[in-house]
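Support request, please re-run this one:
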Amino acid sequence: MPVNEQEKREKQMAKTAVLPVPASESPRDNALVRSRAFLTGVRSEMRKVSSPSREEVQTTTTVVILAVFVFAGFFYIVDSVLGFSLQAVLRWLGAS
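Re-run finished. Output below.
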């Protein structure tokens, strides 16, 4: 890209970056327009949401509870093995 074209683009970008808000449009009006657009978007997205059935909730709850117990058992075993190992090493090194 030639330097002149690049300078023109940079100047144009600088001009658009500093454009003032028109006097007829106050910041409050702009906030109201943006808020309304946001709420309209939220409403349209909420229409796409589907709730799980009772059977799906029960199934996932059961899976989560079983996973918690499996991980608790796993960490208990790992903690016990590491604890006994550490005690054995300390006794071997001469600790009481």
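The mean pLDDT is 85. The radius of gyration is 32 Å.
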